[in-house]
Amino acid sequence: MIHLISKDNSALYQEEIRDLHQARAEVFVNQLGWDLTVKDGLEYDEYDDARASNIIGFSAENQVVMGLRFRPTDDCSMLLDHFSHVLPAGIRPIDDGRTWELSRGFCVERGMRRHNLRRKAACMIAPLELAYEAGIDRCVGFTDVRMLSFCYGVGWKLTLLGSATDYGQGEAVAYEVEVSQAALDEMRQMWGLPRPSHILIDKLLPGEDNVHVAAARLTREHPELQKIAAQPEIESGTHPSATTGADVYYGRFGASRSASRGH
């Protein structure tokens, strides 16, 4: 299932939050070779504060398989604090009070069936849904250019902010993604997503040991959530042309508009 975790319900997710930061260390440091701080096997940075929220996707075995962090930019942001040199002059201010930043997005769910791609799309639309509800009209970020085809294919309405630049492990580019009712409706229709495309658990009912039991209850109560619930994973084969950990990782992303129309 695709969960929203914020400061308001994080007490229910202590083990899952630890798993998230462990997964980030594995993906970004061990697989992609990013120079990030890891302590006790967990990757944290200065933006993992009380204003940050996360969308986390869990496997059928309740393992963290995808994540995307979002945070307001009015006080600080990775884009301004670390990558302002890549931004062109004269653009709309990043810290204008109507912008959220997306970062630390990853997915290790390997399946390439429509269902897997729909779950990835749910993880990608969830911050936009929440941003729209909060009166935010765009999200920004900085991504490896190898992710752009996936971002476009999954339905994000992207505008690139400047040119790609080398960041040490490849080339990356700043972007903004439109947050509007029309953009959300188009993406939901493209993938057949429920509305909203995530669940919020802020308490456990008597007899519920954890958030995954609560998620199963919500899915029984709202059958449309089956569209974004995890299914047993089917291996999709190898990538014989991939030569590095990064190549293997980025090669797993295959969402496209044609795939969104499949079955």
Can you walk through the features of this model?
By secondary structure, the chain is an alpha+beta fold. It has a single domain (2-260), classed as Gcn5-related N-acetyltransferase (GNAT) (Aminopeptidase, 3-Layer(aba) Sandwich). It contains eight helices and nine strands. The chain is globular. It starts with a strand and ends with a helix. The model is unreliable at 236-243 and 255-263 (pLDDT under 50).
Determine the mean pLDDT. 91
Give the topology string: H per helix, E per strand: EHEEEEHEHEHEEHHHH
Distance between the termini: 20 Å
Superfamily at the CATH H level? Gcn5-related N-acetyltransferase (GNAT)
**Unreliable runs:** 236-243, 255-263
How many beta-strand elements? Answer: 9
Number of helices: 8
Q: Which class in CATH terms?
A: Alpha Beta
Rounded to an integer, what's the Rg over CA atoms? 18 Å
Strand content bin: 15-25%
CATH topology: Aminopeptidase
Question: How many structural domains are formed by the residues?
Answer: 1
Main beta sheet strand tally, sense and closure: 7 strands, mixed
